[in-house]
């Protein structure tokens, strides 16, 4: 409000007329609006009461319980439908009917816990010595089919296992000098490739390995588990080859996770070997190549150890070889499964999990039985004792040709 001076005194100016009325109304509205605005900022008192929070928490708990109950019921119903519609062939049902294990085992609420068994390994690598006379076995020479020249092969395309006939497979059981199909078979065309291609540098590295520890990850199906370096002796670090086979997809994933190979291609103790042009679309089938054909991938190696990609090596490999091969005078050692000890059980489990086509499983299963496969009988005194090796581990002496014949037949029989 303006002031004016009258007779030496300052007095308030009183505005009259139309302009004064307008100004006075504007001032009044501004003062009233500021009061309303200040009142509007106040938080409702009802929301601050404890009763409101209790009702809100109760409502959220009811909603969570309804969603969780719906999810559990849906999960249980899907599991029952899969078991109800599980197809089994008549031949397999007839052979499994006499087995004690039920087709649908009861579901356990608690997951089984398995612990490693006690193994009497040597205290240190310095205390072990390779025996001179390992064992007596038949000496014979083996050659491998490099290129398919079989006139009975109807397809000129390359096939990793080749086109082995049933008659050739039958003859391969004989311990004699012969040439057999054992993977890496090129087609009749000069430009054909069997697959599982490696770089020349990796081949040179693997040709110099005397003891090999290998594993594989294809299709980014797992993550890398490095051997526990502090539990591996300096002797093994210098004299044992630790090779991890991967494809380009897995290599890219490992690099994104921080497992980038160094200048020599190592990630920890693992030597990363990249495989190109995979021979099979099924990654599990491709994984059988390094698992069974270590004698082809490591031609100069005398001993080899295979590890499943879900395992971590926590023991010196030379101590494992000394205990299971040298001390036991064994050709090879295969780990015993924790839960299943019979192929009949494994057939049913593969069908329950729908790992493969059920008809193909039946066909392969009947083929094994025609080769003389018999049902496992734990009460039979002639049954070999279960192995105490690590689950997923496979050890072998690569110089034993009878053992090589078995592995080659496994890869060549592509049914």
From TrEMBL:
The chain crosses the membrane at residues 52-73. It comes from the Eukaryota. Keywords: Membrane, Transmembrane, Transmembrane helix. Residues 142-383 form the TOD1/MUCI70 glycosyltransferase-like domain. InterPro entries: TOD1_MUCI70 (IPR006852), TOD1_MUCI70_glycTrfase_dom (IPR048354). It holds the Pfam family TOD1_MUCI70. PANTHER family: ALKALINE CERAMIDASE-RELATED, TRANSMEMBRANE PROTEIN. This is TOD1/MUCI70 glycosyltransferase-like domain-containing protein. It comes from Gossypium laxum.
């Amino acid at each position: 409000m303006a002031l004016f001076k009258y007779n030496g005194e300052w007095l308030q100016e009183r505005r009259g007329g139309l302009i004064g009325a307008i100004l006075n109304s504007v001032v009044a509205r501004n003062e009233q609006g500021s009061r309303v605005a200040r009142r509007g900022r106040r938080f409702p008192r009802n929301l601050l009461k404890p009763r409101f929070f209790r009702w809100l928490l109760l409502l959220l708990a009811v909603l969570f319980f309804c969603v969780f109950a719906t999810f559990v019921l849906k999960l249980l119903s899907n599991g029952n439908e899969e078991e109800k519609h599980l197809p089994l062939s008549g031949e397999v049902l007839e052979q499994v009917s006499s087995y004690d294990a039920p087709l649908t085992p009861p579901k356990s609420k608690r997951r089984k816990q398995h612990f490693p068994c006690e193994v009497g390994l040597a205290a240190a690598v310095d205390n072990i010595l390779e025996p001179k006379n390992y064992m007596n076995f038949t000496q014979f020479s083996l050659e491998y089919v490099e290129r398919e020249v079989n006139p009975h092969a109807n397809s000129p395309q390359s096939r990793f296992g080749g086109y082995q006939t049933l008659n050739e497979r039958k003859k391969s059981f004989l311990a004699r000098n012969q040439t057999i199909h054992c993977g890496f078979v090129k087609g009749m065309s000069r430009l054909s490739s069997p697959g599982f291609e490696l770089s020349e540098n990796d081949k040179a590295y693997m040709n110099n390995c005397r003891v090999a520890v290998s594993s594989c990850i294809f299709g980014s199906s797992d993550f890398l588990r490095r051997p526990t370096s502090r539990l591996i002796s300096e002797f093994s670090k210098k004299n044992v080859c630790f090779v991890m086979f991967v494809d380009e997809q897995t290599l890219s994933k490992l690099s994104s996770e921080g497992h980038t190979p160094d200048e020599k291609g190592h990630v920890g103790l693992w030597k990363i070997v990249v495989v190109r042009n995979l021979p099979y679309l099924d990654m599990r089938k491709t994984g059988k190549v390094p698992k069974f054909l270590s004698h082809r991938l490591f031609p100069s190696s005398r001993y080899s150890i295979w590890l499943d990609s879900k395992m971590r090596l926590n023991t010196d490999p030379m101590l494992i070889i000394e205990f299971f091969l040298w001390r036991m005078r064994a050709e090879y050692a295969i780990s015993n499964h924790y839960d299943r000890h019979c192929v009949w059980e494994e057939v049913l489990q593969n069908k329950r999990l729908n790992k493969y086509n059920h008809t193909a499983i039946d066909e392969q299963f009947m083929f094994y039985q025609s080769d003389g496969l018999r049902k496992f009988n734990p009460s039979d005194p002639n049954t070999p004792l279960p192995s105490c090796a690590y689950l997923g581990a496979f050890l072998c002496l690569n110089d034993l040709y009878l053992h090589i014949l078995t592995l080659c037949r496994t890869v060549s029989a592509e049914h």
